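Sanity check record (used in CI):
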Amino acid sequence: MFKRLCSTAMIFGAAALAPPQAAVAQAMTCLPRDALVERLEDRYKEHPTGGGLQNPQQLLEVWASDESGSFTVFVTRPNGLSCILATGQNWTGAARTQPDGVAG
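Expected output for Lipoprotein:
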């Protein structure tokens, strides 16, 4: 019984000491959009492949490289600050197809 009580106390104690989500979100890599775009183009040979408004205050962008397969997903705010949400390898873009009956 005492072992279970101590184990439970340790688990809940560790959970209480965990950093709040706001602190985790602040650890995201953010920098001016111009600097990020320059790095993506020069170092990783990435270019815009998609994106859209996540909400009126955030533009979500997906950049990828056909050469290396790398990709970066980031959000840009109105103040010009961009925060990287995800990066990875082996990007495969979806093939764009023309819907039936649409001239184009």
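The chain is about 30% helix and 30% strand. If this sentence no longer matches the regenerated tokens, the check is flagged for review.
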